[in-house]
Amino acid sequence: MSRTLPKQLLPFIWHFLKGYKFFVVTFAFLALLTGSWAPLNSILIKYMIDVLGKVQQSHMSAQIIWLAVFFLLNFGIHNLCWRSLEYLNYRFQPVIKNQIISETFDYVHGQTQQFFQDNLAGRIASQINTIADNLERIIHELSQHILRTLSQLVVAFISMYSVHPSFFYILLTWFLVFTVLSLRLSKRFIHLSEHHAASEAIVSGQLVDSITNANNVRIFSRKAYEKSYLEKALLVTEKTFREKEIYILKLSFLQGSSLAIMIGMMLFFLIDLRIKQKVSIGDFALILGLAVQVGYMIWWGMEQVQAVNKAIGKCKQSLMRLLTPWEIKDREDARPLQVEKGEITFSGVRFGYRDSQLFFQNKSVTIAGDQKVGLVGYSGSGKSTFINLILRLYEPTSGSIFIDGQNIRECTQESLRGAIAMIPQDPSLFHRSLMENIRYGRISATDEEVIDAAKRAHAHEFIAQLPEGYNALVGERGVKLSGGQRQRIAIARAILKAAPILILDEATSQLDSVTESLIQESLWPLMRGKTAIVIAHRLSTLLHMDRILVFDQGKIVEDGSHEVLLAQKGLYRTLWDAQIGGFLPDRRVEDCSVKRKKIEPGT
Ligand SMILES: Nc1ncnc2c1ncn2[C@@H]1O[C@H](COP(=O)(O)OP(=O)(O)O)[C@@H](O)[C@H]1O
Ligand SMILES: [Mg+2]
Fold first, then answer.
1. How far is the CA of 355 from the centre of ligand 1 (A)?
2. How far apart are the CA of 395 and the centre of ligand 2, in A?
3. Left if phi > 0, otherwise alpha if psi is -120 to 50, otherwise beta: which for 6?
4. Whose atoms come closest to the Cα of 505: which ligand?
5. Do residues 116 and 188 both lie within one domain?
6. Closest Cα to atom 11 of ligand 1
7. pLDDT, tens digit, 9 for 90 and up, residues 62-112
8. What pTM, to 2 d.p., does this model score?
9. 415 and 437, same domain (yes or no)
10. Which residues sit with their C-beta closer than 6 Å to ligand 1?
């Protein structure tokens, strides 16, 4: 799990290419070879024209036959090189792309809870795709087109120089002026493109927002309003698109005109030199052919460079966001956690979420193995935080947490989380079948074991009623199930996992009381012989606990059995006295009474 990925673009690219050195070298070589094809063609045509011009009688000279053979050979080799390039591309491109996606995905899953709270899931997924798509593009453009253009340029420059240095200088001057001008002017184009991209992003954001809220749109019958709201954003994209395209039109006109001027100058010199008999007819054709060819090649190459630049920018941005260092990492010498008793100790732990108040403040607590502990307190008092720290989803600011005497900081995260079965308050499900969702607790479980766990979690009843039963898909995050049904699936998962430590974070809060008491009955045997921590709001659950920890504003303020705590007349007693219908209050009594007072006059 301690694998890292380079965050800088070039080392990142090399990380994936270094396993394919043979591919990289062959690819580059073939690209260079294909580049020289076009100017070589022009050179051969020049010689053929010159030879044919000299031949008086109509007979085939050996020279012309050889030239024709070379000409065809050049064609054949070019064809072969191109097809080999394409073959290598088909062969390796998907492999490398998949490797990029899979390794980045794996790395991102090593990020902390905080990372996923700070970054939207959709954004993360699209950034992984951005990296893969653009990297593929960069590698392709660099290795194929840009290398090819380079070799074509070199051959063209040399042949021009060999005919007459003035052609070389004209081409060089034009090349320099063209490149500098294009790069400078394209800055504004990039700016306009970004403008356009931003306006398109707003449209797609609005589409997602509106469709996510489809329910609201229907309830308030705001279909027409939504359409006009979207059309405003669409108008902006139209405007930015037009601005961008008109600018590129002007830029291309300028570039095309400069090309015409360069070719005009070449033509002028060619005619002049031909009149003075300093160049042959073949040279004439060669220079003119090369000038047009190279001119367009550079023009096109410029666009490629800009496209690559853009892709580089996108990649860098995504890499920076996704490949931030893992905040919680296994140590080099991390050992697997060995659980025998399941004793959990908080020793001098202090913890605070970013910039917020500190929790626990050095309080030391030990939960003995096999003990059943209930956590109670108002909402926001730190109960879930206490559990998050045991699971090492967050790291204490100071102090340590031990399980059976082993500091969890020194154990592998996988073994730690493998030893704990956790049922969260609002479990989410994968958009996979119910069978797969339950089996997530133990991947090796058989269908029978999955069904047995579902029966014990009282999920079997409703699953059996679904038309597709255990094969039913439950929608993204499980939206097609009710909160209580999702909780029952989560309980079945935990039953399958059969870990030595069991944690329930208000695991039955969304169930009706009949189902809840049924599930409680199946949970008690599950807890037997295990350490269990239960965040509960139902008094009947607390009565079963060996011990209760009372939380208030991030501190454990009381600790003892139900009877002892009741006798203490502290916060637990207050909570107990304020119970409503068998539940502990969620907010302070004062808050509740204020609310009640506000409601009373109207009722
Ligand atoms: N990821 C987080 N980042 C910042 N603050 C958080 C985060 N999670 C919880 N908190 C804050 O910490 C406090 C305790 O939360 P929590 O432990 O979830 O309470 P409980 O489970 O007792 O209701 C709350 O004030 C909550 O707003
Ligand atoms: Mg909570």
1. 13
2. 18
3. beta
4. 2
5. no
6. 380
7. 888 999 999 999 999 999 999 999 999 899 989 999 999 999 999 999 999
8. 0.82
9. no
10. 117, 353, 356, 377, 379-385
Partners of 381 in the β-ladder: none
pLDDT tens string 216-261: 999 999 999 999 999 999 999 999 999 999 998 999 999 999 999 9
Scan for tokens 């766990």, then name that residue: 453
Q: Cβ-count burial of 39 within 10 angstroms (0-12 exposed, 13-18 middle, 19+ buried)?
A: buried
Domain that holds residue 462: 430-489
Measured in angstroms, how far is the CA atom of residue 385 from the centroid of ligand 1? Answer: 6
Secondary structure class of 456 (helix, strand, coil)? helix
Query: Do residues 236 and 204 touch, judged by C-beta distance below 8 A?
Result: no
Residues forming beta bridges with residue 359, ordered by sequence position: 351
Does residue 564 lie in a domain region? yes
- The bound ligand whose nearest atom lies closest to the alpha carbon of 376 is 1
Q: Are residues 138 and 124 in the same domain?
A: yes
Protein residue whose Cα sits closest to atom 4 of ligand 1: 353
Atom of ligand 1 nearest to the CA of 117: 1
Domain total in the chain = 4
Ligand 1, atom 10, lies closest to the CA of: 353
Q: Which one has a higher pLDDT value, 541 or 564?
A: 564
Instruction: Provide the percentage of residues in the chain whose pLDDT is more than 70.
Output: 95
pLDDT at 57: 54
Query: Any idea which ligand is nearest the CA of 426?
Result: 2
Residues 125 and 225 in one domain: no
558 within 8 A of 595, measured Cβ to Cβ: no
- 387 CA to centre of ligand 2 in angstroms: 9
Query: What stretch of H or E contains 372?
Result: strand 372-377
- Residue with the nearest Cα to atom 3 of ligand 1? 353
DSSP string, 425-454: SS----SSBHHHHHHTT-TT--HHHHHHHH
Four-residue CA torsion sign, 450, 452, 457, 460: positive
Q: How far is the CA of 328 from the centre of ligand 1 (A)?
A: 19
Do 23 and 44 sit in the same domain of this protein? yes
